[in-house]
From TrEMBL:
Its main location: membrane. It comes from Butyricimonas faecihominis. It holds the Pfam family LGT. InterPro entries: Lgt. One of its GO terms (biological process) is lipoprotein biosynthetic process. One of its GO terms (cellular component) is plasma membrane. It is a multi-pass membrane protein. A 1,2-diacyl-sn-glycero-3-phospho-(1'-sn-glycerol) binds at residue 151. Catalyzes the transfer of the diacylglyceryl group from phosphatidylglycerol to the sulfhydryl group of the N-terminal cysteine of a prolipoprotein, the first step in the formation of mature lipoproteins. This is Phosphatidylglycerol--prolipoprotein diacylglyceryl transferase. GO terms for molecular function: phosphatidylglycerol-prolipoprotein diacylglyceryl transferase activity.
Amino acid sequence: MMNYIEWNIDPVAFWVGGIPVMYYSLLLIAGTVASVSILKCVYRENGIPWEHLQILVMLSIAGLFLGARLGHCLIYEYAYYFAHPLEILLPIQVKSDGSVIFSGYQGMSSHGGLVGWMIAMVIYSRITGENVLRTLDTIALVLPLAAGCIRLGNLANSEIIGIETNVPWAFVFEQIDSVPRHPAQIYEALAYFFTFGINLLLYRRIGLKCYRGVLLGNTLVWVFVARFLIEFVKERQVPFEDQMTLDVGQVLSIPFILLGIFLLICGFKCKKNTTR
């Protein structure tokens, strides 16, 4: 055990008036602020009105949250949340004796969040009159940055843990058990930050006016290929996945990978045709 990293951080960073402020929330805010700062520069470079960015941020946050929350509740724990519908949108937990405690949001689905975000971006394009694909490309540029921060928040919560291993960098999540495990949250965070770096290079090379859908396609491929592979070293989230060859996260990743490849092919092909 001396060779492994012992992880026992308190998920609560500090308290404000009896309400816990979690590291997860702070990292989520940090990722959001950093993403918005980058998008502000992108909007300025492309002559897009500042008011449009404000609409984009509000709709993105709403779409990501609602999609991620509903995705988790309906896919992973449908029976529980069907019996406790208030807990879907409220950060509370109703005990068997009827008492209510503040619990935070227990579970988010990245696949659901992505679907919710795409719907929000279609709404944004209808409101602002901007091209849907360019809108999706714009926020896809920074989406992996925010996703990486969220995974670090999962690490702070000692959740989404990996399977048992004896690699030198294994983590012992003491709030869970004394078993050395893959730090799957760090694997995903690094993969997402890497994708963000690739996106920045792509943006500097092709911008937003040409190769529509390429930034979105690049994000989908890198993020969900990483998600598919990392799932092999993650603990199953719900019992019914034990009967599956591929878990739910892997099955749901496949359509997004295929969509990403399709967008990349179409984006580069359309540019080639317009330059002939």
